[in-house]
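Format is chain and fold; as here:
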Amino acid sequence: MNAPEKKVFILALFLFALGILVKVSPWDPVPQIETFSYAEQPREALKNEHNPNGFVQIEQSGLKESAKTGNISRNSKKTKPAVHFPIAINRATAEELCAIQGVGPKLAEKMIAYRSSHGRFSGPSDLKKVSGIGKKKAEKILTFVIFD
C-alpha cells in the first residue's frame, strides 16, 4: 500500500469505529419517531350521543349546498370564461385578452387603451406599437389572435 491508500484506509477505519461508538452509546443523537396505530383506539371513543352507531360524519370543505335548489357548488377560485381561439383582437375584452399566454391584466388594458386611442389594429405592426409588447411577445400573441 502506498501513502495515499494508507490515509484512506485509516480514515475509513476511523469512521467505521466512530459509527460503532455512536451506535452502542446511550446518547441518542436522532430523536425517535412515535408511531400511532388506529387499532389502538377503542371503537367506543368514536360513538357519542348524536351518533350511536359509530359512524363519523365528515364535512367536505369547499362544497356548499343550496337549501332552495339542492344544487351543490364548489367554493373555489372563479373560473375563467371559456375563450375560443383565435380571438378577434379588435373586439376582445380585457378578460379575453388575459386568456392569451403572456398577456396579463395590465397588458390587456394597455392593448385596449391603444385600440381606443389609435383605432383598430390592422396588423402585427400595430400590435408592436403597444407599450410592453416587443418582437418576441408579439410573435406569441399573434398565434392566438386574428385581425378583423
Notes: Helices lie at 3-24, 94-98, 105-118, 124-128, 135-142.
